Input
Amino acid sequence: MSMVTETTARSAEKFRVTRSRRNVAWTGAGALVVVVVLWRLPYLVYAGTTTIMVQAFEVLTMACMWNLLAGYAGLVSVGQQAFVGLGAYGVLILALHGISPFWALPVSAICCGVAAFPLWWLVSRLRSGYFAIATWVLAATIPLIIVRFSALGSGTGLPLPGLSGISSTMLPADTYWIGLAVTVVALATTYVVMRGRLGLVLTAIRDDEVAARSSGARVGLARMIVFVIAGIGCGAAGALVAISDLQVQPTSVFSIQWTAEMAFAVIIGGIGTIEGPIIGTAVFIVLQQELAQYNAWYLIIFGLVAIIVALFARRGLWGLVDEYAHVRLFPVGYWLWTGDEGRRGLRWRRGGRHS
Amino acid sequence: MVWVNDIIQGILTGGLYALFACGLSLMFGVMKVVNLAHGDLAVVGGYIAIGVITVTHVPVLWSFVIVVPIMAVLGYVLQRTLIQAALDRGVLTTLMVTFGLSVVIENGLLQFFTANSRGLGTGNAFITSSFSIGSQITIAYLPLTIFVAAVVVLLGLQYFLTRSKYGRLIRAVADDKEAAQLCGVDYRHVFGIAAAIAFGTVALAGMAYGMSSQLAPTIGTDTILLFAFAAVVIGGLGSLWGTLLGGVVLGVAQLIGAQINSQDEVLAGYIVFLAVLVFRPQGLTVRRAR
Output
């Protein structure tokens, strides 16, 4: 902090604060190019590749949400599969009433956001570890209620209706595009949230909850908003799961495996950074493809890597990149430029994040 | 009389749940660690028991003499290495590491022992036999033994923590580990001892579950961890006798639920848990909210 006051005193007219070291327009243009290329991908590759990409979109969307929860709001939720399952069942219910699953996806996601309010009210009384298990209990309770409805296929679930009209060549492409849309919205939401006032509060909570509270940050409200956003995001990902699997099975959509995948992706990629989930998802997809024939081994190795990263490289793979190259794909921090000294970063405080 | 019988069975099942919850409660009380791998470690204890019985041919009921020390050593080692390393880095890291451990153990068990469920001591005369009081009430020896074991474990823990030298050290470290360290206590070692005790009870929990039901890789979280947690919350965080009460309430709720509809056994237990969370978040036995 002394650095800032010094600089201000010496050359007040010469320094400025920006979001990024580079011109933000370049980042925006780069993101646009990536999205356009990804948009054209179904015309360029086989359906097998787009199917893998849809899986990546599912995990990446969930990872973005889990990153907001655990990385910023300090909420380690082990029950996000509740929203994945609710999102999938939302699409199933709407599709059974004759609504196209692609239109049902956003509606279902919003419904998950609405459902997040009472669930938050239940679990918000508990802290850290107990919060984690309470979300897990909720996620175990919801499928017990859902399997009571025989119209929803009881314990075995139902195939998803409403997609039989689409040709077998267009269906994977359509699924891919809606998956891409969901992921882009999830990443954009994270970015917008982190650049705004809420992001400032969340960053403060991440760094030091007590200090954030004593500075007047409304920690409880910020956490509730994040929980609801994560509910919407995981619900959308769950709806995507239903569309890409073409069926909804209670044991698979409410599986703890979803939370394991999203959490490990975030931890390995870099918790508390927007870029981290992207790297983590890439690692996950590579591992899963390489170890596909060895059953559960990919999850075992993924988990072991996550444990090692959580212990020895707490800011994940992206943290390692950032440490050496000081790169930000998503400029949500601040940089201080001084006229005479060249550039100098006034970055977020790094210490004490996990304390 | 059917209801009386059910309530008695529920109370006895509560003993099993209290046994599940004991280690979770102890580890949180002393180290402030919420061990998300708790249930999976109990399953590991059960599988070790199956292995020990197959290799040494000890009687099923006495196999705990071998299994509990094995798990206690595992607990000490795990606490001194992985869990302590995570603790040094903060609460969030501890949660992530124990969650990772949970997923790794569960899938590891699936990989090596398949998803098939296996019983512990199936066919043992004592495990399957029961006695009757009157014409309606039938009490099986096994749940009664488990209930008594849970009470003995809780009493033993209470006595150990309040009366013994090590118990005093554990309480001192739980209260203020820096102050205890200034007085010459190696808190890491004390944490290790506490984890060893917790893992001993975890081994008992896994074996008790294996005898009264079937062990499978997935029951670690689905059943043991979540029921243990429900019992802890219902009874009140950080109270040993509350844990027993919580287990009993959960057990009775499940049995009543099963009476209404056989599918609702587990759901009824969770509904009671959620009701306690809403109306009495401090639990049934604790006066003030924490």
